[in-house]
Amino acid sequence: MVRLRASSEGALLDCCFQDEKTALSASSDGCIRRYDFCSEIQTIVGKHDDSVICIDHSEETGQFISAGLDKKLMVWDRNMKNGNPGCTKVENSDIWSVSICHLYLLAAVGKMINIYDLRNLRGPVQIKESPVKYQIRCVRSFSNDEGYAIGSVDGCVAIEYLDPSKSHEMGCVFRCHPKSRSGRYHLVKINDIGFHPCSTTFVTGDDEGYAILWDLQSKKKLFELQQFPCSVSSLAYSHSGELLAVSSSYTYQEASEMLVLISH
């Protein structure tokens, strides 16, 4: 059953729930919009100078975070007294993905993960170099907020923990697609990662149209959905974890396909 259908002047590039009655969207026209499911009213609550490519919301602090092609990472406070969200400019870099991990904000900047404390945004409390070789495509926090997973443009996934000692003991990097008999790897971009809210499993979506289920603890592949006709551009579990939504669409993968010969 459709709760709300709303038009937008620009293409919708990302969205998230603010609560059970409202949602937020990031658009190519630079606008951040709030949608009220009850009144069916949409309101522009923020704006970038270029397309907004990702957005997320913190239940703990009431803030929402946006990143755009204008190289701005913005934190918006919806609890301002006048009702209009105030904003704080956090970063002036190419941000490719953001994720909320309890009271921390994770931002993917090139091959680095910048970690911010949402209670004090003067600068990153930690800057971690990614263990993957190529650029980060997405970052997603665990359901228990103990760490996060990184998806890269070369088809690798890295598991990292906020506690450095845990990262050293339990962190890992693995490739979603094994190399062929010829010793070649097709560098298949990981577009999104979704963690099950009630278990230790997660699913990856890639440019070849595969959605693959993995177990975080055993670090093993559990299941692979039937290949979609186009790239898996986005995916997410329902609040209960009973449903998995998968978005499959063209992501311009042919423009940047790479083939690497791995020497023996």
From TrEMBL:
Record carries keyword ATP-binding: no
Keyword Repeat in annotation: yes
Gene3D superfamilies registered for this protein in UniProt: YVTN repeat-like/Quinoprotein amine dehydrogenase (2.130.10.10)
Source domain of life: Eukaryota
WD repeat copies, ranges: 45-77, 183-224
InterPro entries: WD40/YVTN_repeat-like_dom_sf, WD40_repeat_dom_sf, WD40_rpt
Transmembrane segments: none
Keywords: Repeat, WD repeat
Name the UniProt record assigns to this protein: Mitotic checkpoint protein BUB3.3 isoform X2
The organism of origin for this protein: Canna indica (Indian-shot)
